Amino acid sequence: MTAQLERGGGVAVWRQIAQILATEIGQRRYGEGLPDDRLPSETDLAHRFGVNRHTVRRAILGLAEQGLVNVEHGRGTFVQAGAIDYVIGRRTRFSENLSQHNLKVAQQILSAHKVSAEANVALALEVPAGTPVYRVELARRSLDDQGIELPLAYSENWFPAARFVDFPDVFAQYTTISATLATYGVTDYTRRESRIGARLPDADIARHLGINRQQPVLSVESTDVDVKGKPIKYGIAYFPADRMQLVVQGDAA
């Protein structure tokens, strides 16, 4: 049976195949604990997706670049270790999370500007609707020794503008949220609430995560507070479900 692919939708066919296989790996259809951790042959995959073997080979190369599979010549393609654990606790920090897996993180500030707080943002930050806040969009990727980047997260973050004056400029200088907040006297903060969900991505989220819109994402909607319990950040982060799995610690809010 030929799998359904989006043709002419802006995402290369080989990349769509890689994403489908990556999702299936994440769902443990192949891999550790199963009778066979080998992917189907190139011929079988070509038949399944209705493409030539060259396209399948490029998809498998993409999976190998992501560290999801290992190609053993003469034997086949085998699944590597599973998705990256992302721990959610009272002190959730993206860079620290990834450093525990010996992963280098590359961060890109996609946009940072002042906006009026919409109802959901105002509620989370405990300010009136329409209050000026800074909205910061971030894309985060793992970076291997060969310089290959793998998208791991896309997030939208809001900060009270009155408390964090010129936040985008300071953030561009210090590059991490924790270091930036420290310049405003917020040397420690904790997670008050984390709301976890799953959904299909819209076009922007899919583009930033390098996936197509048929691939599910995990979402974490969160509010961070200072030591006095005052909200300092509201955010929504999206993770590709085939690359990341969320682990909630016992002390998580």
Automatic annotation (TrEMBL):
InterPro entries: Bact_HTH_transcr_reg (IPR050679), Chorismate_lyase_/UTRA_dom_sf (IPR028978), CP_lyase_PhnF (IPR012702), Tscrpt_reg_HTH_GntR (IPR000524), UTRA (IPR011663), WH-like_DNA-bd_sf (IPR036388), WH_DNA-bd_sf (IPR036390). SMART domains: HTH_GNTR (SM00345), UTRA (SM00866). Residues 11-82 form the HTH gntR-type domain. The keyword NAD does not apply. It comes from the Bacteria. One of its GO terms (molecular function) is DNA-binding transcription factor activity. Keywords: DNA-binding, Transcription, Transcription regulation. GO terms for biological process: negative regulation of DNA-templated transcription. PROSITE patterns: HTH_GNTR (PS50949). This is Phosphonate metabolism transcriptional regulator PhnF.
